Amino acid sequence: MSRTVIVFLKILSIILWLFTALILIISLVAGMSGVDIPWLGPLESLIGVIITGIGGLIAWLTARRGERSAMQQTITHNQGAAAQGEKSTAVNVGPGHRGSIVIAEVVQQITGPIAAATDADSLDRIDHRLMQYLEWLRERTGTIELRGVSHAGKQVALELERVYVPLEATAASVVDEPEWASSLEQRNRRGVGIPHSEPLEITLDRVLTQGRQLVITGGPGCGKTTVLRHVAWVLATSFVTDDPAFAERRLGLIDELPLPIYVPLSAFAEHLRALDQMQRQGNRVAAQEFRLDYFIPGYLVENAATHGLPEDFFTQLLDRGDQIILLLDGLDEVPNEAERQRVREKVEQLVAGRRDKMRVVVTCRTAAYHDQTALDRRFREVRVKPLEDSHVAALVTHAYEDVYRLDPTRREKKTAELLNGIRRLEADRRDRFGDGAERLITSPLLVRMLIIVHQREGSNLPEQRAELYWKATEVMLMPDYSLDEEVADRIGRLIGGRKELHRDLSQHLAFHMHSRGEQQGREIDEDGLRAVLSTDVRFAPFIDDYIALTRLRGTLLEELLGTYRFVHLAFQEFLAARYLAEVERDIGQIAAFLEAGPVLDSWWREAALLVPGYLAVTSEASALSLLQRLAGVDAGAPAWSHAAAPDVQLAATEIAAVAIMEWATDKADLRRAVAHRLAALLTDESLAAPNPLRGLAGVALGRLGDPRADVNCPIPFTVPIPAGPFIMGSKKGKGKDEDELAYEDKEPRHEVTLPAYKIGKYPVTVAQYRRFVEEGKGYETARYWTPAGWEQRRKEGWAAPRWWDDPQWTVDNHPVVGVSWYEAVAYCNWLNVIKPRDRGFFRLPDEAMWEKAARGTDGRRWPWGNDWDPTKLNSGDGGIGRTSAVGIFPTGRIPEYGVYDAAGNVLEWCSSPGYREAKYPLTLRSYQEDLKLSVETRALRGGSWGNLDQNARAAYRDYGNPHDRYLSIGFRVVELLSILTSEF
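^ that's the sequence the OP posted. Answer follows.
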């Protein structure tokens, strides 16, 4: 209303000024002619007074309008809304909410109070442009293109609102340190890497409730980017539609709505490289240009997202402390470790000092999120879990609801057809590889490809991953729609009328891009693309058509601002693999190429796995030959093994093992041969290999079927510990027989004498514990449990260890985790019921038994000696980041006893009370006395996959509540030499 009055008064003022000018002209003419008009002077003075008054009124109204604009952030604790001034955006805030930021306030803060008070039109223009940005973001993130699927002659783009399925994730636990630690030493002893509270299971639509700074990790195609798109779309929609309750329903946000800003980190990395190049060429570059906050406005302007806003609007928002959420996609897409470290530092610098006002969500492939790439510990990691059957069903159902929105009969038919096909596919895999086999369809990307293939080929679904990629690639390269049919037909008709050239061009490009390595292999400019395709004379005449088609329509390749990349790295990896299989062809040459470096390079891992997978579909004999060669079990293996480095041998064998598990044909002899080869390599003390590679190989060995008799045995294998004294505990200090890494609760260092006993060579494995769960009905039989344990089991509804249904934590040859002290005791009691007569009494070790078996008699720090070596165990320094197969660190065992994994892998329950309730010198009790003690905590020993050197020492003491069930905790058993000594 005030704006209308202001405009009217301005027009009136202009009319009066014109009238005044007319009076002046009349006076001038009258004066020149000698005519006296007495009333002109008073009239001119009167009009001047009126104009002055109108000017003051306009200034007052404008100021009032500016004040109202400044009031447009409404914070209320009750229902209500504020919407003042034209184009302002009101926000309704429900009971108990703390308010929402509104668009007009953001504009007010961008333009500043002076502009708001003096230039209302400018305020309106910027308000409108910021709203345009949000509308642009809403449109940009509101659909998911299902490239390769058409309906009614048009490419299908699914509405995000209709098809988004909130997948499940595991949020790393957050320990409130002041609750358990009162000193720096106590805080340090826990270590950053090993959480002592349970990770939280969440759905990804509630990810923003897990903290203000988050990093979402997961495998390729798991839906990380879709999560960011969903967050951006929901927030933009909430602003545009003036409905903050929408964000609460969809995201669980009840605080101020943050302004969403979506940026791919690969673009920021490219920006940094360009600045570096400018500096190398002698140009001066201001330091601020390297900052992320300086880059963001330029990126948004370049993408036509913020046209008309001031270039420094983002910095002004930061300076004023407004609520913002940065959605930073693809940290793993930054080309190399050094650049990822640099980008990570820039993100941390931007957040520093603004954690209360700035939300940040970063995405990264799990494989790339480690070492210098990992953000500081205040960024909470949320790891996307593999799809469950219910997620697959929901994704398919929602997608077909959108595709066949107007045809419910066909929708139901196609949905049922695809879901039944997926069930048959997964059932066939379980029949071939056992109930513990991982599912084929574990990511939204694979579901999308199934939909693409199903739309084209009906219910004949591929039986393995490589075949699925192959069929999806064929469909996406030759879709039945086109924005330029002439261009599409021109490419399709080439080379004798065959429609294979497009695929061959893409395949050639994919291989050569991938061969450029992780740093330069994700994208390519047009000159580079032309250079690559020109290396094959067959392709040179068709490069222009290929580029034109990509620009017009895109298939597997897409173009943005002169840069080309595949729509998903997975397609580049598959086409690179197909190039090796179809162009190189010779098995010896393919193997030699992979062994020359790619088997050791995580960048090549997927492609290396897909080569034998593709050959298994197209040429079974070739696939068999390649797998035998890679695993070193073919006729030429002795000569090859002698020439290849040990880590290459292990990596190649691991690739072969994983590929075999994907193969639809069950080659039992090959599986056994490769399993024996893996076991031999992993237990070879002379083999030097990175810990992550050992971890992967141990997983493959467990899933193939570990042939080691002392691991694959129904009752834990135990080794003898002779009677006699040993040194227990440590004295803190740097002198002789002192340890500067010790904690005070290890003191005093003292001698303890124990009778002979046996102890588990390894921690209890998943396979061994499975017998207790399934055959032994352990969770259904009260007599195995202590009274307190049975009551806890009943109250919590335990039917198996925590995470028992998660395949990554239930590999047969890995330590069982997620078990409480009560469950470990129950397992030992079950063993005593079912064991053969020639076996002794089974129990948990007390702290003295455990420590003697882990350090010998001489008081060494770690099982192998006094010098730390992270290659000898699975610890937080090693980079595995989870449990590993037992016994695969042979140089880390205690040599005189042959006990493995006493340092790292998992913390292990002991029968004793925790160190707060069991001071040194240790009081020895019988097992039954230990069990009957009424104590709050029980002892944990050995360190785990997340602990560092200090907490992996043999003398290190930890504790847990007896009902704790963490991913870091397992146990091993003690076997007494006679049932008569069960009281010991």
